[in-house]
Design a protein that fits this description.
Blueprint lengths: L8 H17 L5 H13 L3 H4 L13 H10 L5 H20 L1 H8 L10 H16 L6 H11 L1 H17 L5
Length: 173
């Protein structure tokens, strides 16, 4: 999986816009949560990261329904399943927040994703990943994942506003 360098030039831009949007517009003063969201934007710059889950033949899984089936193929406990579930949460939040029109199109068409709620699956996936990564509930990653689950809709709204701000600033088309 591609991981952006810590000094990636877009990291500062995404962090600044995300912080401003969540703090000033939404009143969310939660640095670990906002940091996670701005890092998500940088990580998902690469197509390979968005579609990092693969089938047995090495083909990228592009539908949420396929990803959910992939999560069921691995043992219910363990880091691999937690990482898949966290990715599903990230994938659903990314699309729901930045491209809600695309999620709407998928859910009104004939794809398998027409039968899956991105919001509901994102919330469930983040919560399940949190419980696997840290059953005690005290780890920082656990706390952020639980917040992403419980505040999924707010995070999606915030990411929609981040996209709008990036477009206004001429950073996105």
């Amino acid at each position: 999986m591609w991981s952006p360098p810590i000094n990636h030039p877009l990291r500062k831009i995404f962090a600044g816009v995300t912080e401003h949007t969540f703090f000033a517009s939404l009143g969310v003063v939660d640095p670990p949560l906002v940091d996670y969201l701005s890092d998500l934007l940088v990580r998902f710059l690469h197509f390979d990261t968005v579609y990092r889950l693969k089938d047995l033949g090495g083909r990228p899984l592009t539908e949420l329904a396929e990803m959910l089936l992939k999560a069921e193929e691995v043992p219910p406990e363990g880091r691999t399943r937690a990482e898949i579930l966290r990715h599903i949460g990230d994938f659903t939040l990314f699309w729901t927040g930045l491209f809600p029109e695309e999620v709407h199109r998928l859910q009104t068409g004939f794809a398998r994703d027409a039968f899956v709620s991105y919001t509901q699956q994102g919330k469930l996936s983040y919560l399940a990943a949190a419980r696997i990564f840290d059953p005690s509930g005290t780890d920082q990653q656990h706390l952020v994942l639980v917040k992403l689950s419980s505040q999924f809709e707010l995070c999606a709204i915030g990411l929609t506003q981040v996209r709008q701000e990036l477009i206004r600033a001429g950073k996105l088309n």
